[in-house]
Design brief:
The structure is a homodimer of 277-residue chains. Chain A has 277 residues and is of the alpha/beta class. The first copy, chain A, contains eleven helices and eight strands. In chain A, α4 links the parallel β4 and β5. The longest helix of chain A has 24 residues. Chains A and B meet through α7, α8, α9, α10 and α11 of A and α7, α8, α9, α10 and α11 of B. Chains A, B: Pathway: Amino-acid biosynthesis.
Chain lengths: 277, 277
């Protein structure tokens, strides 16, 4: 099976490493950056790398897209005449509703797109931060569409387990975007807002414990990728921001009213929920 | 030097372990729970344990209070006639303004209270979760008051470094409570609000990555301790909640207005700040 990874950034590079470690041999890379291709080849992550994908896309049995959300549609458009009959395409995009319909409108009939979301990432971008470990024990989501063939879903699922994911879930794209706005985009919005609300030029680093460090880790964020993810899922994200804000207001109200009992009950609720996680 | 630790919970127990590892020999414990004292003695963390402290307090050169904030004043009241002349008391309380004045009003003249705040903790309570590692590389704050003798500040400082703290800062209690509301209490409020804003009975655990896990870790919270810390520093905490909320509103505004450029500039700011940390 020829596997072509399109986009050898931190996620694509990690895919290449993890696939290699899992025993897959025929892995090829497409990337617009020559340096990246060179590194990937030196590290023996790919058999060959290509700036222009058309040649190798024609031979691909499985194509893994690890590119920015907006580029997914462009990629299909540009390659619609290159895909092999029966080829399987999958992606690594953190939002789904935005482009599934667009992609299906232009996807050749004999190509199957299994929309996937590996819930693992790094703050840093680029192949230098790729790691085969990043998928270990993580969650993997497949947003199944009617047209998907069971054997192709099973293939993507099997590969996910082979490269270290602990749990693969099949869900609808609507539910995916809804829950992801809460579990992934909202935490990033919070982390950014937290560190941005610090006073300028204060020596904050001398006054922090693990909590501040943990809560701001993801404030180190790829602005191009995450602005696409945020805006591409804005209605869901606005809703969960509002729900979160109203919970924070509850805490503030306890403070204003010196309501120790209500405050404790909020803490007991959060503790139970965290322990269940 | 006889060291008496009052309160052998997760912090007091960790103190005992870390002091022992650092070579201190004469460590005694006071705790209202007989089981806890038994465990501490079995683990050889203390030479002897006491339910009622008066006997051993009389012999103490250094007293480390690791009890709930409200109990600090009570402890001083109850023991004001027990303290040895020249004894040094220090505490581990996360807020300071609330009780410094009260304590100073009743503290005997020949006893020096060095108000300390080890910025390290665990979500869990009790000696079973104590660990000598918890202080390694952490920050330690001393809120100096006029009455403190330099030699006693230096003693507490030296012990902090001996048991693993990386950095000891001397600051005013006003500044302490102000910055701690931001770096410690606000993150806890956010974590609690985040997990409490989840929809009931949703299988959230299947849809999370590291970010949600990191941001909710401290939602597992000791409700008695943290309600005291929140309410005892409420004015500062309300202020930083408001400042945080207004940053979150900025992000929401970008979403409503599809303002990709502004969103990116917020991300670039947060990334720079996080990298500087």
């Amino acid at each position: 099976m020829n596997i072509v990874i399109v986009g050898l950034g931190v996620i694509g590079g990690s895919y290449a490493m993890a696939l290699k470690n899992a025993g897959y041999k025929k892995i090829f890379g497409v990337d617009s950056n020559m340096e990246t291709l060179k590194k990937a080849k030196e590290l023996e992550l790919i058999k060959e790398g290509y700036i222009y994908g058309s040649y190798i896309i024609k031979k691909a049995d499985l194509i893994i897209l690890s590119i920015y959300p907006k580029l997914v549609k462009t990629f299909i458009e540009e390659n619609r005449n290159n895909f092999k009959k029966g080829a399987v395409i999958t992606d690594a995009t953190g939002i789904k509703e935005l482009f599934i319909k667009d992609v299906l409108d232009i996807l050749p009939k004999d190509v199957d797109f299994i929309f996937g979301h590996p819930m693992a990432g790094r703050e840093k971008k680029g192949i230098d931060y790729a790691s085969s470990e990043v998928f270990n024990g993580a969650n993997y989501l497949i947003t199944v569409i009617e047209k998907n063939k069971e054997e192709n879903i099973a293939l993507v699922e099997k590969i996910a387990y082979n490269i270290g994911f602990k749990r693969v879930k099949r869900i609808t794209s609507k539910y995916h975007d809804e829950i992801i706005s809460f579990t992934s985009q909202l935490p990033h919005a919070i982390a950014v807002a937290l560190i941005n609300s610090d006073k300028e030029s204060r020596d904050t680093g001398s006054f922090i414990g693990d909590s501040y460090r943990d809560l701001t880790r993801i404030a180190n964020i790829n602005e191009d990728l995450w602005s696409e993810l945020f805006l591409g899922n804005k209605l869901n994200l606005i809703k969960v921001i509002d729900e979160f804000s109203s919970e924070l207001e509850k805490i503030k109200k306890c403070l204003i009213e010196d309501d120790s009992e209500m405050l404790k009950s909020l803490f007991i609720k959060s503790t139970k929920r965290r322990e269940r996680l």
